[in-house]
Design a protein that fits this description.
mainly alpha; MetI-like fold; cell membrane
């Protein structure tokens, strides 16, 4: 006995010119973004206002003019810049192959690797400092570059998140299998295949690492090294206005680095 079914009518939405199928989020989104913007901008604006206010409530940029004339400014900024470069190099060399191999061969262990990368957020800095001091060779303990290994651990949560998101957005297994099938060595796979496809993620992790090094105070203070953040704290004990001006300078320096990295990324994309 044949079973008759009534035809199902599907109502199709007629899309007119100028319409979009993207759901409207309403005015609440704009209000929320405004609240977040004020939350971040008000402290920065207040700090800037304090840094240019004189003793008689006269506004001037005297504090900013004295930044480069400080006796230790070039030394501590140069040391912090070198530590940032070493940290970025070590973090990229370690984390890019690790996260790539997790996506290729051990995806079931992704949660384990993610958990390990989050440990620096919950382990006290004192414990991390003592652990690195106990494991590093004696020749490295007397140099400030010991801090670079500390910073690599601190940057792991941010580096892993950025790289994991970048690799999750591409079919990395197909790309790697195709390259390996054509005889490409692993070095070529990472440098010519994986890295160009996650360039945005790598630049994002680099910026987060640079921002961390420019603002990290605890580990440098525990190891008694005079980096840019510890020097700002030392200056703040004598001149609060100059210390706040240095903090604003550090923030602007990080933003300049971000814009430089973005410009490099756009230029490389334009060449492709």
């Amino acid at each position: 006995m044949a079973t008759m079914t009534a035809p199902v009518r599907v109502k199709r939405r007629k899309v007119q010119r100028g319409m979009t199928l993207t759901p409207r989020l309403g005015p609440g989104l704009g209000f929320g973004l405004a609240v977040v913007a004020f939350y971040f901008l008000i402290p920065i604006i207040s700090s800037f206002e304090f840094s240019i206010r004189g003793a008689n409530n006269n506004y001037s940029f005297e504090a900013y003019g004295r930044i480069t004339t400080q006796p230790d400014f070039g030394e501590v900024l140069g040391l912090t810049a070198r530590l940032a470069l070493v940290t970025v190099f070590l973090s990229t060399v370690i984390m890019v192959p690790t996260v790539t191999l997790v996506h290729l061969t051990a995806k079931k262990f992704r949660r384990v690797v993610e958990f390990i990368s989050l440990l620096p957020l919950v382990i006290p800095p004192v414990v991390l400092v003592l652990g690195v001091l106990a494991t590093m060779p004696v020749s490295l303990k007397g140099t400030p570059y010991l801090l670079a290994f500390e910073y690599v651990m601190l940057s792991m949560p941010y580096t892993f998140r950025a790289l994991d998101a970048g690799l999750g957005a591409i079919d990395v297994r197909t790309l790697v299998d195709a390259a390996r099938g054509l005889g490409a060595p692993w070095r070529t796979v990472f440098m010519k295949i994986v890295a160009p496809n996650i360039r945005s993620a790598i630049f994002g992790s680099i910026f987060l690492t640079l921002a961390l090094v420019m603002g990290e105070y605890t580990m440098a203070a525990l190891l008694l090294w005079n980096t840019f953040p510890t020097w700002i704290a030392l200056v703040g004990q004598q001149e609060a206005t100059l210390a706040v001006a240095l903090s604003i300078f550090s923030l602007l320096f990080a933003w300049v680095l971000l814009m430089a990295l973005s410009a490099v990324e756009r230029r490389q994309k334009a060449r492709l």
